[in-house]
Amino acid sequence: MTREHLAEAATSIQSASDAADDDETIERLRNQSEQFSTLADADRGPDHGKLARHEHVLTEIADGESSDVASHVERALESIHAYRETLEGV
Questions:
Q1: What are the b/e assignments for 9-45, b being 16+ CB within 10 Å?
Q2: Distance (Å, rounded) from C-alpha 27 to C-alpha 4?
Q3: Residue 89 included in any domain
Q4: How many domains is the chain partitioned into structurally?
Q5: In which domain of life is the source organism classified (predicted)?
Q6: I want to staple 72 with a disulfide (CB 3.0 to 4.6 A). Which of 15, 20, 43, 67 is the partner?
Q7: d(Cα 84, Cα 90) in Å, to the nearest integer?
């Protein structure tokens, strides 16, 4: 079962890594993209806590990056927020 919003987040994060210049940033973004790809196809979706941790990491990565990288991360965060709206709880 694919979770479309999480797959969209993975794609946006991959685009951010393609736009990044710093090797460490590229690696961190690729790691996040891979994790969201895995979450999109997992049997069970992530909970609010896991997604909040990812959001924190992505926000931290985007701070101080180029506007191109930041805009891709912002699109990913919008997709994550859209997915979170479908979850019960918090």
A1: bbbbbbbbbebbeeeebbebbbebbebbbebbeeeeb
A2: 24
A3: no
A4: 1
A5: Archaea
A6: 15
A7: 9
